């Protein structure tokens, strides 16, 4: 991941969060086609899934997928499904559109201009609290590769040790709000993250947010030895890169949603051992990256896509326990104003069975 793309998942959390309120408030009046949660919920359930694969639609269906950022390895399975014809086999003509700093997948999908979007699990919870009736249908990353980096040799063993230091992070991101509250970081000098590491490199006592999958190699290339605290080790573990659609679309077109999710998971299973074959397609859609860089990232990304619960169940797996844990933590630190009913937040009924 290059500097132009090194604000991926957590950056999009801030960007979408900034537009979220406006999106949610506008949605009720601008998107009458999207029904209310109570009126159209597909009644998400972990165990409601049929055991058979989806039958391809009789006529090819046009599908638009909005990404959460510019194309990168976190979208590898989608490009694999497209390149290898898995979407076509499922009767779908899928267009993958990049995200970006001015693109809100939540707003686009809620308005009906696209059928599927990608966002973080914590952002999806905030969107639903704002009244946007979207539902998660697959979690492409079981955990986030986000971390807080510090110079090697600094006496930082836990998050409490950040007190008294300069920390550069997305200050409004839910993960940072949680860590500040949970570890009582009331003596941190906070600086807002802009995607640049120059200040961090110059100040050996400082701390900065980044991604294990890309920034360790980037620091090493600049002659900077770093260590890090993984954000997941703080106890904050929302699902990341969550594919979502509207409750209305899931209820009215369950066969299409199932066909899309199954083909996407098939794409991810192919990407696992064939990323070098697919990555040139990603570079063709995001020329700021290199195939060599993406090949290295894809290896590091495997831990987050294929391990944990995904190893036992399936790529994309989600549990009520994890969703409840995230919702509870966001409520406790005030990011959510009320406790969420996660039975309406996600459904596993479209995921393939192991």
From TrEMBL:
Signal peptide: none annotated. GO terms for biological process: thiamine biosynthetic process. InterPro entries: NMT1/THI5, SsuA/THI5. Residues 30-55 have a biased composition (Low complexity). Residues 30-60 are annotated as: Disordered. Residues 72-274 form the SsuA/THI5-like domain. Pfam families: NMT1. SUPFAM superfamilies: Periplasmic binding protein-like II (SSF53850). This is Nitrate ABC transporter substrate-binding protein.
